[in-house]
Amino acid sequence: MADIILNVEVRDRTGTGGARDTRRAGKVPGVLYGGSKDPVAIAVKSNEFRKALYTGKLLGHMVTLKYGDESQPVIAKAIDMHPVTDEPWHFDLYRVDADQQIKIEVPVHFINQEASPGLKRGGTLGVMLHTVLVACHADSIPEELVVDLTGLEIGGAVRISDLKLPAKVDAAMDAEIVVASITMSRAGVGDAAAEGGEA
Question: Residue 16: is it exposed, middle or buried by C-beta count within 10 angstroms (0-12/13-18/19+)?
Fold first, then answer.
């Protein structure tokens, strides 16, 4: 089961006015969706929500929702931040079962840029996808997908089919979609053209 526990309250008022009242009371408004039940307006104390958020394991991960003596696994799929204060402003939770198969976006990170011949020769890494949609059980969501750029030349590309996925995790996107590629930078193109002219 998840490490993070969110103690929630049910909100009586919904809409903009209800959300405003919730924030005035020092709480973050949210909505619980999913399953066979109706959406429920909920709230979490701001300090508790911030603490959970800053662990880095709230968004896109399975957490435990507690309401009184009841608890259930949920996934935080959306968190809105205030554009000025950068404080949590609203969140959406989805009911799940630990062994339920779900689709969720996972962030992509790149390593070993220094071991890419294409980047060493002045190429530019063009990232087409910052997240990849995967299918897995709710309790097996990977933290990230790591792309190793070792050996990648100019003109080379990393596709969905090239990703090393953890066990029990499958890509839920077309295998030929390009995640990232290395292209000749404009400076490199200019240098090549100049060399051709001199020749």
Answer: exposed
CATH architecture of 5-95: Beta Barrel (2.40)
Where exactly are the structural domains of the chain? Answer: 5-95, 101-198
- Phi and psi angles of residue 189, each rounded to the nearest 5 degrees, phi first: -65, -40
The 3-state DSSP class for residue 45 equals strand
Domain 101-198, CATH among 2.170.120.20, 3.30.1340.30, 3.40.190.10, 1.10.150.130: 2.170.120.20
- Return the biggest CA–CA distance within the chain: 80
Give the sheet arrangement for strand 170-171, strand by strand: 145-148, 101-111, 131-137, 170-171
- Cβ atoms of 63 and 55 within 8 Å: the answer is no
β-pairing, 62-67 vs 5-7, is parallel
Sign of CA dihedral 53, 57, 62, 64: negative
Token pair for 152: 């990648």
pLDDT in tens, 62-102: 899 999 899 999 998 889 999 999 899 999 999 988 778 88
Report the C-alpha gap between 40 and 33 in whole angstroms: 7
Cβ atoms of 116 and 182 closer than 8 Å: yes
**How far apart (Å, rounded) are the C-alpha atoms in residues 193 and 173?**
38
> How many H-runs (helices) and E-runs (strands) does the chain carry?
4, 14
34-43, 127-136, 167-176: range with lowest mean pLDDT: 34-43
